[in-house]
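Quick one, tokens below:
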């Protein structure tokens, strides 16, 4: 079978398509024939050797995907032909990932594809929605009518945060670096849109009532602005640090506003917690039938081009597939 694997940490170009054997099943595992795999920025950081807790290569990256169960033990909870998505915290990090034609995985690491998602939606949305659930529900305990400010709003985490926050009854303010994305963000669940690099961004957000919850993927110096734009008793959920890792912050603002600052890590959900988180978040999303916007689907043999496209900051997710259709 074809699999996108790397043998050494370093350049993203180390990821190459290889021909390897279809995996054999260990006890409790199911074999998935992959249809679509979703890319995440963390896959790139992992190959570069910048992802804490990643196993030594070689293996395929890819932590998101959707495929069909083609082999399972007689007493498995899944049937042959079931379409499943990946909740596993180890796939593509500590074991072979989803950028492959087949994946063997413990059955506790997959869940049935929700009926209103296509296989492509499942590859695009699962891990980002689970991360945003960890932030908005587990960490921030978001209440209806509170305001959520979302940075990097046009990305996977940004769009999932907007959709989930709206489904939870909150107001939303999207922050983007790109004025061309305003209209599409308003259509994707943002009540207001502001520009991340606007020198008056804090005042503009305070004029809109400030943020009760901030979902931040930018980090760096922007974290100081997040603290400024948060209301008293606000919660800041740090999901990523795309803009850098160093920041000068004023602890007095955190003290006087009684702020909570949370670090998010979706791969720290234990298997049962991940299953429960997915179940709970889908219950919240079901009335809105929300799915994640897909920017572009690349053929399976163009994974490098897909990573490069994601690096440029598209509007929505980048996925590859249908897998197995390439000549
Ligand atoms: N902690 C966790 O468990 C967890 C889970 C998933 C993802 N993450 C991390 O969260 C971050 C975002 O993930 P994602 O899936 O949303 O990525 P994505 O789809 O690539 O989107 C990121 C968005 O952030 C903005 N952006 C990109 N580079 C930036 C920069 N240098 N400075 C400021 N803004 C920038 C862009 O939006 P605009 O053009 O709209 O500004 C971009 O679309 C990544 O670092 C990822 O590794 C963490």
């Amino acid at each position: 079978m074809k699999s996108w694997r790397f043998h050494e940490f370093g350049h993203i170009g180390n990821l190459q398509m290889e021909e390897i054997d279809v995996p054999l099943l260990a006890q409790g595992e199911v074999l998935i024939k992959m249809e679509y795999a979703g890319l995440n920025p963390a896959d790139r950081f992992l190959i570069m050797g910048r992802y804490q807790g990643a196993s030594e290569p070689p293996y395929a990256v890819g932590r998101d995907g959707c495929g069909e169960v083609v082999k399972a033990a007689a007493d498995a909870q899944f049937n042959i032909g079931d379409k499943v998505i990946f909740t596993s915290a180890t796939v593509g990090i500590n074991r072979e990932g989803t950028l492959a034609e087949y994946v063997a995985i413990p059955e506790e690491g997959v869940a049935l594809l929700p009926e209103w998602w296509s296989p492509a939606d499942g590859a695009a949305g699962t891990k980002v929605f689970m991360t945003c659930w960890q932030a908005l529900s587990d960490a921030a305990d978001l209440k209806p009518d509170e305001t959520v400010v979302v940075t990097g709003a046009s990305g996977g985490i940004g769009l999932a945060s907007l959709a989930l926050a709206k489904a939870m009854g909150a107001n939303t303010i999207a922050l983007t670096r790109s004025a061309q994305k305003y209209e599409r963000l308003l259509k994707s669940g943002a009540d207001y849109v502001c520009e991340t690099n606007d020198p008056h961004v804090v005042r503009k957000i305070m004029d809109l009532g400030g943020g009760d919850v901030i979902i931040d993927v930018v980090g760096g110096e922007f974290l100081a602005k997040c603290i400024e734009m948060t209301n008293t008793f606000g919660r800041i959920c740090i999901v990523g640090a795309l803009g850098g890792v160093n920041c000068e912050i004023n602890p007095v603002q955190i003290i006087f506003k009684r702020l909570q600052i949370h670090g998010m890590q979706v791969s720290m959900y234990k298997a049962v917690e991940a299953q429960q988180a997915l179940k709970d978040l889908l219950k919240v999303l079901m009335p809105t039938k929300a799915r994640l916007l897909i920017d572009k689907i690349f053929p399976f043999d163009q994974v490098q081009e897909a990573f490069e496209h994601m690096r440029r900051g598209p509007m929505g997710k980048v996925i590859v597939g249908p897998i197995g259709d390439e000549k």
